[in-house]
Amino acid sequence: MKKKEFIKSLSNPPYEMRTIDTSVLIIPRDTYQRPLQSDEVKEIIAQFSIYLMNEPKVSFRDGKYYVFDGQHTLISLLEMNNGKHFPVLCKVYFGMTEQEEAKLFSMQTGAGRKLSPADRIRAELYARDIATMNFRDATLRTGVSFEHSGESNTCNLRCINTARAEYERVGEKIYTEALDIMVEAWTGCRSAFKADVLKAVVAFVKEYSGKYSRERLITRLKAEDPETIYRAIRSDFDTPVELRYVAPIVKIYNGNSMLNALGNGK
Fold this sequence. Notes:
Blueprint: H1 3-11, E1 15-21, E2 25-26, H2 38-46, E3 57-61, E4 64-69, H3 71-80, E5 87-94, H4 98-107, H5 117-126, H6 130-141, E6 144-145, E7 155-156, H7 160-170, H8 172-186, H9 195-207, H10 214-222, H11 226-234, H12 241-244, H13 246-254
Parallel strand pairs: 2-4, 3-5, 6-7
Antiparallel strand pairs: 1-5, 3-4
Helix pairs in contact: 2-3, 4-5, 6-8, 7-8, 7-9, 8-9, 8-10, 9-13
């Protein structure tokens, strides 16, 4: 949205303030909403201030009111009212599809707790966000899955945000090549898919693309505990940041042999 259009929209927002009884408000947890977090409800109640409360955001669709932002505020208000329904002021949006609601839910940056990576990607997939679906499909093709990816494989991604960032940084080819190698070397090993280990293998594949032996790399990695790689990265304060991730993989790849050994890169 251009700056002038944004300023104009402030005086004519795409919603209307409407008082709605809580009994008719629907929280779509079976589709894109995250599960109710009871500790978040307790925190809201403990710190509640009418002056800081944000009105629940609601989509009026097919004659019903769907809460796409503010479910924890709503549940907190109900608990403070002993579970009895009451009228509450809401921001009501019109003409939105369920996928548009899901996308807005995934983008929320309000004062409440941020969505977990799994909650965010679940909502984005429900919204049929093209970039998110491409990332999921590329990941699944390697035999790796993650929560809400639609499949359950022996290799589970533990670092969705890091994986997504690496996928976008290096592109699908390098990303999937790195995951393929990790799956072949460490199938079923949970620590293999920690953020630092993933970044290390991706960094190696990107730096030495077309220069390394895939067979040699997999053979050497199979003999290594990925937890050792993780600890090596975490304890290395001397290697420059741009080399810190790739260095342990180069060391493993070269071993004690100088034949076809790789340099340190950069």
